From TrEMBL:
It holds the Pfam family Laminin_B. The keyword Thylakoid does not apply. SMART domains: EGF (SM00181), EGF_Lam (SM00180), LamB (SM00281). This is Laminin IV type A domain-containing protein. GO terms for biological process: animal organ morphogenesis; cell adhesion; tissue development. The lineage of its organism: Eukaryota, Metazoa, Chordata, Craniata, Vertebrata. Disulfide bonds join C85-C97, C105-C114, C156-C165, C535-C544. GO terms for cellular component: basement membrane.
Length: 758
């Protein structure tokens, strides 16, 4: 909704922009009134003949001239701004609409915005509307989906993903319809989270059918004391009878115990019969113990009653899923641990005094590493370098168990053998199979045997936590396993492409130049400070993280062509080597235009205008004075002399002003030169002013000469006066000394003012 209100505002802003500067033959920033900022683009110039590309188009427009609507917007005939199409994301084929704002609809959908179902259709979804009365078909993988579907979308079990719920989420494996979570988490003894189903294990059941005897099953009281178990040759089953109320259990033989990892996620099932009625199950009817953990489960959900005298199959899933009913709730890892060393499997036999329980066909689904029916619930792990084995259960050569008592659950750590030798994974004892290391194996880690003193160990000249060995020539001691990025015999400096100071315990880190250096170049960053030394793509900065002066863009963009591009600004009108992050130029005072190439004329004309006005005023006074002098007007020579002094001063001032005007004119001249070729009419204005000022100056010099002559004249007159002793002498300055000059001067000055006022 908010956008609807914003649009007219954007449009208003666009209409408030000053009218596009006289669009002379498309040579300027022409943005159809939707922007006044352009950037110059040579490519665009070549393609279209006008290189000005508009920036920041308003009114939802885009394009080099803001000439078209943005995607998902349309323009009503005769309107300037673009309005949003607002096509319904589900009902329409795309976000674009026609010039009346009408969207293209999916099947069964109608309305300008495709937001309604056609008659006879219903339930708008991403697939459009469906025909009324037709159920939406969900094509879901039954193994991975919950069986529900929502608007054509399959609802997956918790560890499953994919459009049809057809694959396991990351870190899970074995999509199985019988698994309430869909897939099992990778186990790998905690050393890896990546696995797939193994292909070299086959299904195999561990069973007791009691065909020949009790098969090693025993009776045990809840307290742990033994109880009698009997075998029936006639029924070929096992049974236990109670005389007291203390529960007695069937206790499984060894083949059901030990490492039963391969049964994880599979079932334990058995056939059980009780000869008494009305007995309720307890929470502890089936008991699993192992690895210090114990879980129990009831035969039946609470509230149900065990059937009297009827054989029934009971099945229990061996995993931590809540639906598996084990309590307490273990996590995945704990359940795996429990199965990894199963020490007890008990099945309840008796429920109360004089009850007898019968057991048959016990089955623990498992797998074995032989060809046969595949057992996809067995995992095959992708192990890190320290581990080996299908389940990452072993240490790789050169590694040993950190805590041997944890068995395969223990992490593996390097052996600590001299010369990087291998060791016994559980004890860490170094193998002495290698002839060369045979005798030196006894130097403790962090020390080495000097070949010249073979009977003692010397401390490695390496950083903490590092071992060492003697190099091939027997001369050099080489530190083993330099930390990543470190180099040198003693790992004392950072390798090329890294920085830091390992000697001062600052670990080596990769150069951080934001991808703005040649990947294979040498010396990309300072090995100590990390300062990037070879920034490319016009980037600069300590981490090549900004654009070079005179360039703009995003130095961190992944595509080099999106990184830093040259600012395209007028070298005179724009701030040097600078532009904004979108490439727009920063103009110096008095300049404007997309590249700051146009000078704002009022400011520079103003200077001229002030000067010329001063001239005019002074010239008027001079004119008056001269005409009085010419007229002789009965003035005494002293007065005349005084007036001539004033006139002379005035002329000098004018000349000074003319000089400074000429100086400012020189800067004008520079600007004029820059505007050449832009067809600006202000150029001819300035040319005219320049010529005028030039003539003003020339005339000024002429006046100066004439004033000199006048002064000499006056001087002579004063001498004459002195000589003749006459009291008064009329001095007449010949009009020919001012050959129409003053009038012409005035005319020119007026002309200059007229131009300046334009
Ligand atoms: C193992 O037992 C299960 C159920 O108890 C049965 O479905 C399966 O076929 C048996 N597999 C083998 C290989 O005997
Ligand atoms: C299994 O558990 C038993 C009893 O706690 C223990 O003695 C045995 O070492 C364990 N085996 C393994 C492989 O952890
Ligand atoms: C145990 O399994 C065998 C073979 O599948 C079957 O014949 C027998 O009836 C089963 N026993 C019970 C008590 O269900
Ligand atoms: C099964 O295959 C994996 C790799 O494919 C192998 O590491 C493992 O030793 C094999 N296991 C058996 C029991 O053959």
């Amino acid at each position: 909704m908010a956008e609807r209100w914003l649009l007219p505002l954007a449009c208003l802003a666009a209409s408030l922009l000053p009218a596009a500067r006289s669009a002379r033959s498309g040579e300027v920033c022409d943005c159809n009134g939707m922007s006044r900022q352009c950037i110059f683009d040579w490519q665009l110039l070549r393609e279209t003949g006008n290189g000005y590309r508009c920036l920041g188009c308003l009114g939802n427009t885009e394009g080099p001239r803001c000439e078209r609507c943005r995607d998902g917007f349309f323009r009503r005939r005769g309107e300037q701004c673009c309005l949003p199409c607002l096509c319904h994301p589900w009902g329409s084929l795309g976000p674009q609409c026609d010039s009346d704002g009408r969207c293209s609809c999916k099947p069964g959908v109608m309305g300008d915005k495709c937001d309604q179902c056609q008659l006879g259709f219903e339930s708008l979804s991403e697939a459009g509307c469906r025909r009324s009365g037709q159920s939406l078909q969900c094509e879901c993988d039954p193994a991975g989906s919950t069986g529900h579907c929502h608007s054509g979308r399959c609802i997956c079990k918790e560890s499953v993903t994919g459009e049809q719920c057809q694959r396991c989420k990351q870190h899970f494996y074995n999509l199985d319809a019988r698994n309430p979570a869909g897939c099992s988490p990778c186990f790998c003894y905690g050393h890896s989270v990546t696995c797939i189903s193994a292909d070299n294990y086959s299904a195999h059941n561990i069973t007791s059918t009691f065909q020949q005897g009790s098969e090693g099953w025993q009776g045990v009281h809840e307290s742990g004391s033994p109880a009698q178990l009997q075998w029936s040759p006639r029924h070929q089953d096992a049974f236990i009878a109670a005389r007291t109320s203390e529960p007695i259990y069937f206790m499984a033989p060894a083949k059901f115990l030990g490492n039963q990892q391969l049964s994880y996620g599979q079932t334990l099932s058995f056939v059980y019969r009780l000869d008494r009625g009305g007995r309720q199950p307890s929470p502890h009817d089936v008991v699993l113990e192992g690895h210090g953990l114990r879980v129990t489960a009831p035969f039946l959900p609470q509230g149900e009653v065990l059937p009297c005298g009827i054989s029934q199959m009971y099945t229990f899933r061996l995993d931590e899923h809540p639906s598996s009913k084990w309590s307490p709730r273990l996590n995945h890892f704990e359940f795996r641990r429990l199965l990894g060393n199963l020490t007890a499997l008990w099945i309840r036999a008796t429920f109360g005094e004089y009850s007898t329980g019968y057991l048959d066909n016990v089955t623990l689904v498992s797998a074995q590493p032989v060809p046969g029916v595949p057992a996809p619930w067995v995992e095959r792990c992708q192990c890190p370098a320290e581990y080996r084995g299908q389940f990452c259960q072993s240490c790789a050569p050169g590694y040993r168990r950190d805590i041997p008592s944890q068995g395969p659950f223990s992490i593996c750590v390097p052996c600590n053998c001299q010369g990087g030798g291998t060791c016994e994974p559980d004890t860490g004892e170094c193998y002495s199979g290698d002839e060369n290391v045979g005798n030196v194996a006894s130097c403790p880690f962090g020390s080495y045997r000097d070949p010249r003193q073979p009977h003692s160990c010397r401390t490695c000249p390496c950083g903490p936590g590092q071992g060492c060995s003697v190099g091939p020539g027997g001369e050099e001691v080489i530190c083993d396993h330099c930390p990543p990025g470190a180099a040198g015999a003693n790992c004392e400096y950072c390798a090329d492409g890294y920085f830091g100071d390992p000697a001062a315990s600052q670990p080596c880190q990769l150069c951080r130049c934001n991808g703005n250096v040649e990947p294979n170049a040498v010396g990309n960053c300072d090995r100590r400070t990390g300062e990037c030394l070879k920034c490319i793509y016009n980037t600069a900065g300590f981490y090549c993280d900004r654009c070079k002066d005179g360039f703009f863009g995003n130095p961190l963009a992944s595509d080099p062509s999106d990184k830093c591009r040259a600012c395209n600004c007028d070298s005179v009108g724009a701030e040097p080597l600078k532009c904004r992050s979108d490439g727009s130029c920063i103009c110096k005072p008095g300049f404007e235009g997309p590249r700051c190439e146009e000078s704002e004329c009022p400011a520079c004309y103003g200077q001229v205008k002030v000067q010329v006005e001063l001239y005019l005023q002074q010239l008027a006074e001079l004119e008056l004075l001269l005409s009085e002098v010419r007229a002789g007007g009965g003035t005494g020579s002293q007065e005349l002399e005084g007036r001539m002094l004033v006139a002379e001063e005035m002329l000098q001032t004018i000349l000074r002003e003319a000089l400074s005007l000429q100086a400012s004119d020189r800067s004008l001249e520079g600007r004029v030169a820059r505007m050449k070729g832009q067809g600006s009419s202000s150029q001819s204005h300035l040319d005219e002013i320049k010529a005028t000022v030039e003539r003003v100056r020339a005339l000024g010099s002429q006046y100066e000469r004439q004033v000199q002559e006048t002064r000499q004249l006056l001087e002579r007159a004063r001498l004459d006066l002195d000589r003749s002793g006459a009291a008064l002498l009329r001095v007449t300055i010949p009009v020919s000394s001012f050959p129409g000059g003053s009038n012409q001067f005035l005319l020119l000055a007026q002309e200059a003012l007229r131009l300046a006022n334009r």
